[in-house]
Amino acid sequence: MTRLNPPRRTSGRRLTGILAGAAIALTGVLGLGAPAAQGAGSTLHDAAAESGRYFGTAIAGYRLSDGQYTSIADREFDMITAENEMKLDATEPQQGTFDFAAGDQIVDWALSNGKQVRGHTLAWHSQQPQWMQNMEGQQLRAAMLNHVTQVASHYRGQIYSWDVVNEAFEDGTSGARRNSNLQRTGGDWIEAAFYAARQADPNAKLCYNDYNTDNWEHAKTRAVYDMVADFVSRGVPIDCVGFQAHFNSGNPVPSSYHETLQNFADLGVDVQITELDIEGSGQSQAEQFRGVTQACMAVTRCEGISVWGVRDSDSWRAEGTPLLFDGSGNEKLAYSYVLDQLNSASEGTPPVDGCSVSVTRADEWGDRFNVTFAVEGSSAWQVDIQLQGVQSVQNAWNADVQGSTGTLTATPNGNGDAFGITVYANGSWSLPTATCSG
Ligand code: XIL
After folding, report:
1. Is 244's C-beta closer than 6 angstroms to any atom of ligand 1?
2. 260 vs 124, 277, 365, CA distance in Å?
3. Residue of 316, 317, 319, 323 to test ligand 1 pocket, by largest number of atoms within 8 Å of CB
4. Where are the beta strands (DSSP E) in 74-204?
5. Sorting pLDDT into bands at 50, 70 and 90, what band is 428?
6. What sign results for the dihedral spanned by CA atoms 246, 247, 251, 254?
7. Is it the case that residue 13 has pLDDT exceeding 70?
8. Which of 8, 286, 338, 422 is 20 to 30 A off residue 236, Cα-Cα?
9. What residue ranges in 146-260 does DSSP mark as E strands?
10. Neighbours of 186 (CB within 10 A)
């Protein structure tokens, strides 16, 4: 059940998105758009799409009247999360009285601009309406399930994936569930919410979403992992795990991030980075953004990244300047690092002496990954491969490959124009680059 390409479940609306993407690509070919290297996307969502991923943002409904905000959001992102408008207090302010106006405004903006929507969130201990905060026990369980059913039904067919349950685990070393009124209705409240959501919108992917689940060594990460493993083994309808990814100097991007994402993916669920922001500035912030992007791209089932806002000034942590655009809407260094990293997925080189080669990341293990090369334009080619850092290569297929570190040379061995190598990362997971002559 690998879903590499998010828009694969093609509904009419998703097709609009795909066609919009095709139109943008065509503009590039005709030379009307910004000059870009062959195969390189000039916006976040175009670059992410090269490897079948999306790039999203949270949107605040009240900012949709800000022209600079909407033009950046429309240009750069293709997956939209309502920052607050689909939460429990917004959608069911009085028990049994639902208000979808604010959520609908964001969903309509997203869908009419060819984007998809992440639903956020159906069940959470926070941002509950007052009536729910005062509730406990069976009454609350029933009210929660009704809320899940009503909201997921209202948005049926419009949501790519729902954060069915948000932040149900405690921080720190206990690995316990968070003590909330929802948890006190019984430990099976989470799976009950997933069953209700599946019934209400069978086509939406259903995610569990949390923060501080990035470091593989942390108890909270393992506790969520154990729950997901248990759900998968018992057939509870869960399709994905969302990693909020709110980072700062006290909680930096862990070096085990890629391992964490891969371990969850290996359970048979998709993973998504759902609320990315990284406090800081300049080079160090940019490198952390690149690290997160790299970690996602290294995991086949990491479907995409969403940042938690457009400009620094739009952030819930504005003073930490944690986003990709500054308060004036300019691209930050972190933006270029993310864009370059996304573009590294399929670096095509312009034809030199009549041939070109595309480079693609393939299977991945704890210490190594496969890279495949496809040559076009010549059958008597030579491809020079530049490894990154201290990477090394011990085996290759469908070509004669000379060398094992630094620059390698590949020539045809009678097996056609597509070949591959296994790269031992030795700490460097960047994709090698390649040039073709022939
Ligand atoms: C935040 C919003 O950005 C704020 O505007 C709001 O005041 C509080 O919630 N984890 C989540 C998000 O899942 O819903 C939170 O969003 C940030 C932390």
Report:
1. yes
2. 23, 18, 13
3. 316
4. 79-82, 116-124, 161-166
5. confident
6. positive
7. no
8. 8
9. 161-166, 205-210, 240-243, 246-247
10. 12
Whose C-alpha lies nearest to ligand 1, atom 10?
Answer: 244
Amino acid in the structure at residue 405: T
Rounded to 5°, angle at Cα 54 from 20 and 306: 125
pLDDT, tens digit, 9 for 90 and up, residues 293-311: 999 999 999 999 999 999 9
CA distances, 377 to each of 40, 350, 352, 358, 399 (Å): 19, 11, 10, 12, 16
Beta bridge pairs of residue 169: 177
Q: Pairing relation of β-strands 240-243 and 356-364?
A: unpaired
Q: What does the block give as tokens for 83?
A: 């920052």
The alpha carbon of 313 and the centre of ligand 1 are apart by a number of angstroms equal to: 15
Question: What predicted TM-score, i.e. pTM, was given to this entire model?
Answer: 0.75
Q: Each residue of 324-338: pLDDT tens digit?
A: 999 999 999 999 999
39: Cβ–Cβ under 8 A, 6 or more apart, which residues? 50, 343, 346, 347, 348, 358
**Burial classification of residue 33, based on how many CB atoms lie within 10 Å of its CB (0-12 exposed, 13-18 middle, 19 or more buried):** middle
**Up-side HSE of residue 278: CA atoms within 13 Å toward CB?**
24
Within 8 A by CB and 6+ apart from 427, the residues are 389, 390
145: closest CA among 177, 202, 103, 189? 189
Strand partners, 306: 56
Determine whether the shortest distance from the Cβ of 84 to ligand 1 is under 6 A.
Answer: yes
Token pair of 345, please? 């997925």
